[in-house]
Amino acid sequence: MRLLALILFFIVGWTPMFSQVKVYLSNGEVIEAKIGNMKHDLIKLKDSKNDKNQKIKAKEVDSVLVFEKGKQTIYHALGKRKKSFYELCQRGKVNIYVYQSTAVTGYGNFTSTFYALKRPNDAAFADFSNNWKWFYKLAEEYFPDCPTLIEKIKNEEDGFSRKDMKNIGEFYNKNCGS
Prior knowledge:
The chain is of the alpha+beta class. It has helices at 2-13, 135-142, 147-154, 165-175; strands at 20-25, 30-33, 35-39, 42-46, 54-57, 61-68, 71-78, 84-90, 95-105, 108-118. Strands 2-1-6-7-8-9-10 form a seven-stranded antiparallel sheet. It has a three-stranded antiparallel sheet with strand order 3-4-5, with no helix packed on it.
């Protein structure tokens, strides 16, 4: 049973194949491929189904452009200790990124969604949604120019909690910043 769960995790853990991929490495190099497959911290590229995969770890990547069915999706490699590919889901004064992880167990599939915020010109991103202890302090430091947002974060009942990173980013983009 455990073996089956492990096999299913690796099958489900990979995203579907992409038809066209452009990878921008941290060293400035750009790699293009016709087929790509992305896991949370690894991307595999090749030009045809018969070619051998070129594996690139997220720590070596700045961003990835995926072209599929007329749609362009942008991923950035974000992370403090270990980088993962976060999808850019909204541009603004702070860009909003989303990362989804699925685990398959004997009890079913579990999907976790994480959001990160990043100002377009900042090198670092804000991912304080998982930091229970310092959430309010980190939010105050990241959004000093938006007292209205800070009040909404402090008043969790009528405002935002640490689970509302996407809504916090949307509120900031609509009501705050210059």
